[in-house]
C-alpha cells in the first residue's frame, strides 16, 4: 500500500497497520515483496541504478 502525502491520514495508516498485524497472508506477501525490492535495488547506489533502468525502459 502506498500513502500519498496529501491523502495521508491517521485512519488510513491505522487500517493498513491493522491489516498487516491481523492478516498473516498479507504480512507474508508484503515481506516477500519488500525482499524482492531490496534484492533488485541491491547495494548502495540504488537510485542511480533505478534511474538507469527507467531510462532504458523509455528509450
What would you say about this model in short?
The chain has helices spanning 10-22, 24-41, 46-58. By secondary structure, it is mostly helical. The protein has one domain.
Describe how the helices and strands are arranged.
Elements: H1 10-22, H2 24-41, H3 46-58
Helix pairs in contact: 1-2
Helix content: over 70%
Overall average pLDDT? 90
Unreliable spans = none
Based on secondary structure, the structural category is mainly alpha
Tally the structural domains: 1
Describe the structure.
The chain is mainly α and 59 residues long. The chain has helices at 10-22, 24-41, 46-58. It has one domain (7-58). It is built from three helices and no strands. The protein is extended.
Write out key terms for the chains shown.
59 residues, mainly alpha, extended
